[in-house]
Design goal:
By secondary structure, this protein is an alpha+beta fold. It is 39% helix and 19% strand. The protein has a four-stranded antiparallel β-sheet. It has a two-stranded parallel sheet with strand order 1-4. A two-stranded antiparallel sheet has the order 5-8.
Length: 230
């Protein structure tokens, strides 16, 4: 009888420890991922995400929210998806004051930078509020980062479909951008089709920086399709 109770007690203790271990693992995972409501301006570097419009649209991105970006004849190649404050592990989002809406004057500066105003508003709310900048200054930073990155000539407005490897895409950007290395960026794909390029910048946007976590999450398929602009 005593040994039975001891085994039962050991079982209960083992189950409790398992629950605690899962809880700690979940907390660690959350800490390394998205951190909503974090302190604005408290981050390590930026990630500039440039979406490849033909790939984004062909992979199902052309819904009502991206109608202007995906309509036939738009002739859009790389467009700004966002400029994201990032930690070495994980990223902040919807930081205080997350509810503040950018003014009409601030949004005027997003024309020609984001593919549409709706995306600019969303990116400000989710990522811009974590920059520690005003809406006007954040959108100016987005433009500065975009202008800082040179798109390789063969990828500006290709008129024919192409096939690349991930490392060759990275090397093409490295060749066009002095100071950039392949460990400072990543290539994102979906169904073996290019979705976007992500490049890591210092907080002052003057330099490219290494970003192991971003780089590790890049596309690792053998070949990547790069649809032509349309």
């Amino acid at each position: 009888m005593g040994s039975s109770r001891a085994r039962s007690l050991r079982g209960l203790i083992g189950a409790a420890l398992a629950v605690l271990a899962i809880g700690f693992a979940s907390a660690a995972s959350a800490q390394q991922g998205e951190r909503r409501g974090a302190s604005a301006g408290d981050f390590d570097f930026y990630v500039l995400a440039l979406s490849w419009s033909p790939g984004f649209c062909s992979a199902g991105g052309g819904d009502d929210k991206a109608r202007d970006q995906c309509q036939s004849g738009s002739n859009l190649g790389f467009v700004v998806h966002g400029l994201w404050p990032q930690y070495e592990r994980g990223f902040p989002s919807e930081c205080s004051p997350a509810g503040r809406n950018p003014s009409r004057i601030a949004l005027e500066a997003t024309k020609g930078v984001f593919p549409d105003e709706g995306l600019a508003r969303y990116e400000w709310r989710k990522h811009g509020t974590c920059s520690g900048l005003s809406p006007t200054d954040y959108f100016a930073a987005v433009k500065a980062a975009r202008d800082r990155l040179v798109v390789p000539p063969g990828l500006k407005e290709p008129k024919a479909d192409q096939t690349w490897t991930s490392i060759d895409l990275e090397r093409a950007f490295v060749a066009s951008n002095p100071g950039l290395r392949t460990d400072m960026m990543s290539v994102d794909c979906k169904r073996e089709t290019l979705q976007e390029i992500r490049v890591c910048f210092s907080k002052d946007l003057r330099d490219f920086v290494a970003c192991p976590e971003v780089n590790r999450r890049g596309c690792r398929v053998r070949e990547i399709k790069v649809p032509a602009v349309r």
